[in-house]
User: Fold this.
Amino acid sequence: MYLVTAQQMRELDRETIERLGIPAIALMENAGRAIAEEIIALCRRRGRGSAAPASAGSYEAGGYSVVGEYSIADGHAKASGSGGVDAAWKGFMVSDDVALTLDSAAAEHWLILVGKGNNGGDGLAAARYLSEAGVAVTLVYAVPPESLTGEAALQRDAAAAMGLSAVVYGRDRLDFAECSGILDALLGTGAAGAPRGAYAELIAAANSSGKAIVSADIPSGLNADTGETHEPCIHASVTVCLAFLKRGLLQYPGAAAAGHVVVRSIGIPASLAREAGVTTYLLTPEVLRTRLDVDLSRCRSPEGHKGTYGHVLVAAGTMPMSGAGLLSARAALRSGCGLVTWALPQKLLPFVIGAAPELMLAAVGSSPDGSWEAGTAAELLKLSVERDVMAVGPGLGRFTGDNDWLRRLWEETACPLVIDADALNILAEQDYSSWNNRRQPVILTPHPGEMARLAGLSTAEVQHDRIGLALAYAQEHGVILVLKGAHTVIATPEGQAYVNTTGHPGMGTGGAGDVLTGVISGLLAQGLKAVQAAAFGVYLHGLAGERAAYRRHNPASLIAGDIIEEL
Ligand SMILES: NC(=O)C1=CN([C@@H]2O[C@H](COP(=O)(O)OP(=O)(O)OC[C@H]3O[C@@H](n4cnc5c(N)ncnc54)[C@H](OP(=O)(O)O)[C@@H]3O)[C@@H](O)[C@H]2O)[C@@H](O)CC1
Ligand SMILES: [K+]
Assistant:
């Protein structure tokens, strides 16, 4: 599933209209119908006492979900809002337009908040379809209807010709308490800055009404690219995103404001996005399989042995943070690699022997306090010769000469490197673009604080547009970047980005990142390419976190070791 910016969306709209010759009004009709169908589906679910959309084709994590029109389970197209028809043959049958049929329509009254642009036009089209389904609607124009132009004006006239009731905000009486739901069609991808005037007042009133809100395309007040929420911003139950998923709907806080996101086709072919060079994707099983060529079954050869599945070297852990190394090393084992060697300061050895009997231990250095030393680089380089990947950083601490230490590993190891935690902090002090001889890929796995140090930004600036930053950093530095946090972003030096939605808020616990480092390293050792290992590792780590959270009486009890056990 593609992720697009507002600018890319405008270009794809234009391509569809100008090159394919599909009239803009047809796209708007499709959008209006899709929105109406999702409102009816929401009304039905409310009637059944459930607020969540159907699960077919949905990618869900921690209360956030994206629902597509295609089932990821079987690859068959499924209309996400349709109710289904009895397939058994009972002679000649005529069925109604099920997706636009609502038994409880008489109990519904929706306010349609209409903005001046095409987003408002989508809302007006949706209002007609809802009215046809028997739902009472009242159009609430944010601006005088005469100021609408183009397709939105056509929709205004069609709604008026159908006799739909309409009020103009600020001129006519309006009572949110009288409605059963609100369609937010105020601002879409053409919005600029914080909502102004009547738009701001309507958004604030809608939010405080306590009614269910469905947003057309994006919640009004959201920056469609960055996920920044302006003041005010609609807090939707459902967002019916049109044609392609907008980046801002996946990035927090926008992802929280959007509620459940349903992506609906409106007649813009996906092939246009590919031709236009859109290279940002939602990380789904389908994307893993088809774009990244990952074998999701993780099939193992009947003739395989431990040598078949690769050998990870983990350089990690100090006396006060030995657990970080242990978690990474154990996670690498659980990811399916054949062997894991944990290189650790000599002094730690007696304390960790037996902690995970499956691990091989390699004591390095001779510091009396169990910290790392610059001289261990030579020992690690020797160890790395027989290994397929080196993971460096978890629980490493800082030490004299650590800059040169990391530089040697970077320049002299002949295997892929996964760099995490304090090794990232070391890197942040370097102009490592001048480092040489790196032929094998490097994967950096920063959390937002580490990313801030790497990029010379504040954490808030990192979080402002995680996708944009990850893409820019990975391309500039020639690394695969795994920007951790809610909806981890994986960006490649070639300019692709994948946004993951597996995971659970309970995973915000010490050591969860160390586990991820181990998983990615273990997958690399098994022969996955760097981008495959990074993306699949993040995806599996999130799934394991979800399973671990659901096993607990309360997800807050989740600890990093639980994630390893669910891998
Ligand atoms: N054929 C197509 O293109 C298709 C488009 N589609 C739909 O169109 C949407 C994009 O439509 P759009 O480009 O017309 O912009 P849109 O978001 O409706 O609003 C822009 C208007 O709002 C105003 N305004 C701006 N910022 C403001 C603010 N902060 N506070 C207050 N007002 C503000 C601004 O007015 P101005 O200030 O310039 O007078 C401007 O006129 C897209 O999200 C999708 O829903 C789909 O149906 C597919 C086919
Ligand atoms: K909207």
User: Anything to note?
Assistant: Residues 36 and 129 are 6 Å apart (CA to CA).
